[in-house]
From TrEMBL, chain A:
Keywords: Cell inner membrane, Cell membrane, Membrane, Transmembrane, Transmembrane helix, Transport. Part of the tripartite ATP-independent periplasmic (TRAP) transport system. It is a multi-pass membrane protein. The keyword NAD does not apply. It is found in: Cell inner membrane. Residues 27-158 form the Tripartite ATP-independent periplasmic transporters DctQ component domain. InterPro entries: DctQ (IPR055348), TRAP_DctQ (IPR007387). Residues 172-192 are annotated as: Disordered. The keyword Amino-acid biosynthesis does not apply. Belongs to the TRAP transporter small permease family. The chain crosses the membrane at residues 12-32, 52-69, 90-109, 139-157. The lineage of its organism: Bacteria, Pseudomonadati, Pseudomonadota, Alphaproteobacteria, Rhodobacterales. The complex comprises the extracytoplasmic solute receptor protein and the two transmembrane proteins. This is TRAP transporter small permease protein.
From TrEMBL, chain C:
The chain crosses the membrane at residues 6-39, 60-79, 99-120, 141-167, 173-192, 225-243, 280-302, 322-350, 362-384, 404-429. It is found in: Cell inner membrane. It is a multi-pass membrane protein. The keyword Transcription does not apply. Keywords: Cell inner membrane, Cell membrane, Membrane, Transmembrane, Transmembrane helix, Transport. Residues 12-425 form the TRAP C4-dicarboxylate transport system permease DctM subunit domain. The lineage of its organism: Bacteria, Pseudomonadati, Pseudomonadota, Alphaproteobacteria, Rhodobacterales. Its main location: membrane. The complex comprises the extracytoplasmic solute receptor protein and the two transmembrane proteins. NCBIfam families: dctM. Pfam families: DctM. This is TRAP transporter large permease protein. Part of the tripartite ATP-independent periplasmic (TRAP) transport system. It comes from the Bacteria.
């Protein structure tokens, strides 16, 4: 059961990350399109800053949170805890992850309330020529926070029990400096 | 009573509006059972233009400054009054008329605010907007194909009308955009020559035709629970002081306009007149705007836009008359606002 | 407990939680939430969670961060930066710490286009840190220069913080920008001297290069690296010619990097996805911390701590010099915990009238204040630029980075001393315009 839930959550975080990747790619293309259109054709696309902010930024940040948690990519200081025995470290990290899960649950709940409210009133941004609906983007935060909370709880269990059910993030997705040397070499060869 | 605004402490709505108003209320009620103290968070310490409304709604703060366009979905109907900029030639009468329209003639607006747990206590106005460019404008033909920056749909339509392309930027970006030539012109009130350093980058200002004053800034939106929990004496103190504060702020923008023009002179900015042709195009545009406003309101799903715009236009004429009558004395207009509007409020 | 006491207790709690290996963002959120709950009530604290994070994240201006990161990640993963070290080695062969020196000036150059410290640190750091690591630069030096070089971003125009200060203080933004130029260059110069001196005294910080390369070797090395300076110059040029705003420039840079990589046949869908994913992760991590910082600012506003501290300036100042020194001390304390923008918004309403009354030049004060608050980005326990570097180099220890940044803090003290003693450094350029 736990293993199944872990696999499901990992899969969901992968998909959410894929959406975030689409978000960042669109961010780049949309802004460049606006620059080119404005410069060459003197036509400004409407509401680009708002689309970038409400859709691309919201998806990039919120949808990737669970993945970042899984990759242990959040900033933390290890100065004092490094001195502790490994077992105590695991226990401590387990507790911190439980608290993280709890906090993200509260986030999800609160931002969910706001998402429902904004969906009901059909929140929009008034652009120069169009009314851009913005309420759909209100759902990125609660969805991202729920996933992150789930991920944190599952990882906490792993730490506390000492098993691994949450699959680690593939190292090739991390910045190259975390990858083994050969892998970077491999990448080079592939390119050559 | 906690209050939040996102404009700098030195902006007229703080310096001449809420700050002295809170002092006056504190003083007038001091020593009585109704004594009040205020905590004024200015300059966006707490909330910005979009988050102030939900913050008042949830009671994080008791009051704040609001612009309906930033919460367009919640305040669809009041946005309509904000769209009337092209019709308003003068800030003082515009502020009074917009306040009367909001408080006594727009039940839809008040319902919208009530749904957000907010009671709006009147709006102030900017000074008229002018066209300011980073080159010397000599004729309307010069504007053809130029780039303009704007912050609202009305200027998008106007820019199109005179053959300019547009880019939406926020005022803090105007100076840099003009300097680098990302845009050639901006539409802005003259006090921004100093407030947003536009005098550093503007070369000429089209001075003979203004482009309307913006009159839909709610100086004080109060949380309805806070309002209900106040004593009658406290509420009356607010009703008494609001018109004065609204006029002090609006008049303050005129004082800052003069300061902006002094800066323009010092910077050697040319004031140009484009004459009859430009004025005529603008007048035609003003006429067409009524239909545009109603159409936009219908697109938003705001009810009763046509009646609201008509009623507002009538009020505008009446208040222009009153302003003439009292020689544009802000204190006298404030007194008339109290009699006509604030003394009549059912809340 | 009084609100002030709750505020100060919050500072202590942050140190404690971060020490216990709580994620920094989590620690800030917990402290801010608890503090708000104690000062106001739980409904208000919950409402802050509903209202603020979404509004913060959906800010268009902040989109420059993921975009500049993407530019750096594409450049690095497509091999554009691979021979950066060779070039620095060949061109700065006689100079100790050549690559760190190059990084310093890259930050200065990039600052002249980007308005934000964080964007500068992330864009340049993503390109130069992996190369410095590969050649065994001391982590403290490599990370320190990137974290601190980023702070040049707000002094050398354009600068988002200076624009905001100008609007707050109602002084000319153009004059503020001119005023920032010499202090910015002075800072870059002192950093440069400091790097060279340290590497010269302690060659283990940066690998020494014994050979004396010929000019043909030097030019040959350039042949492989030319797209990189071209890319950065195109971004700077795009902003200065008004083609793109500083916010848009990030997207332009990422797109150009993509084009160059495609032209060199060094881009695949897989590589692009990895670059995107990496940029997203760094952005999300730093935003998680920033959301905590944002909530903390609101907690601090309600606690009254910053206003209380700012008020001390008036109480203890005997002349303008003590006034400035006390201000510096207060910003150092606040800067340990708060982000620059929050700090500025919370203290300026109290500080500005005081300095105005003291007859101080508000342009001069603006530059000094920006210097003071930017130091907060590199001081523990909460230092956003240091965290940014940590995300770019996850294997560096946080304490190593903070320690590396300490050397630059010493340099800052010298620079601030110079700026206070010689106001002309700041005021000369604006006076001639
Ligand atoms: Na800069
Ligand atoms: Na700090």
């Amino acid at each position: 059961m736990r293993t199944f839930l872990a696999r499901l959550t990992v899969r969901a975080s992968d998909w959410a990350m894929a959406l975030a990747e689409i978000g960042i790619a669109l961010m780049m293309f949309h802004v460049v399109t606006e620059i080119v259109s404005r410069r060459l054709f003197r036509v400004s696309l409407d509401a680009v800053p708002e689309i970038v902010g409400y859709y691309y930024m919201a998806s990039v940040i919120f949808l990737s949170l669970a993945y970042v948690t899984r990759a242990e990519g959040h900033v933390a200081a290890t100065l004092f805890t490094d001195l502790l025995p490994i077992k105590v470290q695991s226990l401590l990290m387990g507790i911190v992850l439980v608290i993280l899960g709890g906090v993200m649950t509260v986030f999800a709940w609160q931002m969910g309330i706001e998402a429902v409210r904004m969906t009901r009133i059909g929140e929009f941004h008034q652009g120069a020529t169009l009314n851009l609906p913005t309420w759909p983007s209100r759902w990125f935060p609660p969805v991202g926070a729920v996933l992150m909370a789930l991920m944190a709880f599952l990882m906490a269990l792993d730490k506390l029990i000492g098993q691994q059910t949450v699959a680690q993030v593939a190292t090739e997705d991390l910045p190259p400096e975390q990858q083994p040397e050969q892998q970077e070499e491999q990448l080079r060869k592939e390119l050559a | 009573f906690t209050y939040s605004s996102w404009t700098p402490p030195a902006a007229p709505n703080n310096r001449l509006g809420t700050v002295p108003m809170f002092e006056r209320i504190t003083e007038s009620l001091a020593g009585t059972d109704d004594a009040m103290t205020f905590e004024n968070f200015m300059g966006g310490q707490l909330f910005n233009n979009t988050t102030t409304l939900p913050a008042i709604r949830d009671g994080i703060i008791d009051g704040g400054v609001l612009v309906p366009a930033y919460n367009g979905a919640e305040l669809r109907t009041h946005v309509t009054l904000g769209e009337t900029q092209a019709l308003i030639n003068d800030g003082l009468s515009g502020a009074a008329a917009a306040t009367e329209a909001l408080l006594l003639n727009c039940p839809g607006c008040l319902e919208e605010y009530a749904a957000q747990n907010v009671l709006p206590l009147g709006t102030y106005a900017s000074t008229p907007y002018y066209l300011m460019c980073n080159f010397e404008v000599t004729s309307i033909a010069d504007l053809q194909g130029r780039r303009s920056a704007e912050g609202n749909p009305m200027f998008n339509r106007w820019a199109q009308r005179i053959g300019m392309s547009r880019q939406s930027l926020s005022p803090p970006d105007f100076q840099q955009a003009l300097q680098r030539g990302s845009v050639d012109c901006v539409f802005a009130p003259k006090d921004w020559l100093v407030a947003y350093s536009l005098a550093d980058a503007v070369v000429s200002i089209v001075d003979d035709v203004s482009h309307g004053a913006f009159s839909a800034v709610v100086l004080m939106g109060v949380n309805t629970n806070t309002w209900a929990g106040m004593t009658e004496a406290q509420r009356e103190a607010f009703r008494r002081e609001m018109p004065q504060a609204i006029m002090d702020v609006t008049n303050g923008y005129y004082i800052d306009e003069a300061r902006g023009m002094a800066a323009a002179e010092e910077a050697g900015i040319k004031l140009v007149n484009l004459g009859e042709e430009y004025a005529q195009v603008w007048a035609d545009f003003q006429e067409a705007e009524r239909a545009e406003i109603v159409q936009a309101a219908n697109g938003r799903g705001a009810a009763g836009a046509e009646e609201l715009v008509d009623r507002f236009s009538e009020l505008l004429v009446e208040w222009e008359g009153i302003a003439e009558e009292v020689d544009r004395d802000p204190d006298a207009i404030a007194e008339r606002m109290y009699e006509r509007i604030f003394a009549q409020l059912p809340f | 407990m009084s609100n002030l006491a709750i505020g100060f207790a919050g500072f202590a709690a942050i140190v404690g939680l971060i020490g216990l290996r709580f994620h920094v963002g989590l620690a800030l959120i917990i402290v801010a939430f608890t503090g708000l709950m104690l000062i106001t009530n739980i409904d208000i604290a919950l409402s802050m969670l509903r209202v603020l994070p979404y509004d913060f994240v959906t800010d268009w201006d902040l989109s420059a961060v993921p975009m500049f990161l993407l530019m750096g990640a594409i450049a690095h993963r497509s091999g554009m930066t691979a021979s950066l070290f060779d070039v620095a080695r060949l061109w700065f062969s006689r100079m100790p710490g050549g690559l760190a020196v190059a990084t310093n000036f890259a930050c200065a150059g990039f600052s002249s286009a980007s308005g934000s410290s964080l964007a500068t640190t992330m864009a340049i750091g993503r390109i130069t840190i992996p190369e410095m690591r590969k050649y065994h630069y001391d982590p403290g030096l490599a990370a320190g220069i990137v974290a601190c070089g980023g702070t040049l971003g707000v002094l050398i125009p354009p600068s988002i913080i200076l624009v905001l200060y100008g609007i707050f203080a109602e002084v000319s933004i153009a004059k503020l920008f001119m005023a920032g130029v010499l202090p910015g260059l002075l800072t870059a110069g002192v950093y440069f001297g400091q790097i060279v001196l340290r590497c010269w005294l302690n060659p283990s910080l940066a690998p020494p290069v014994p050979d004396h390369p010929s000019w043909s070797e030097r030019l040959r090395a350039l042949r492989t690296i030319w797209p990189l300076p071209l890319l950065i110059l195109a971004v700077i040029g795009g902003i200065y010619t008004g083609i793109a705003t500083p916010t848009e420039a990030g997207a332009l840079g990422a797109f150009l990097a993509l084009l160059i990589a495609l032209a060199q046949r060094r881009m695949t869908v897989r590589i692009f996805r990895q670059a995107a994913r990496e940029s997203i992760m760094a952005t999300a991590s730093i935003f998680f911390v920033a959301i905590g910082a944002l909530l903390l600012t609101r907690f601090m506003a309600f606690s009254g701590v910053p206003m209380f501290l700012a008020g001390l300036v008036a109480d203890y100042s005997v002349d303008t010099t003590t006034m400035i020194l006390i201000t510096l001390a207060i910003y150092l304390v606040l800067g340990m915990f708060l982000d620059p923008l929050g700090m500025m918004l919370l203290t300026l309403p109290v500080m500005l009238p005081m300095f105005q009354a003291a007859g101080m030049d508000l342009i001069w004060f603006g530059i000094l204040m920006v210097k003071f608050i930017e130091i907060g980005l590199i001081t523990p326990p909460v230092g956003l630029n240091v965290y940014a570097v940590k995300l770019l180099a996850p294997d560096y220890k946080l304490q190593e980075i903070f320690r590396g940044a300490l050397w630059f803090l010493l340099a800052e003290i010298l620079i601030i001393g110079l700026l206070i003693t010689f106001p002309q450094i700041t005021l000369f350029l604006p006076s001639i315009m």
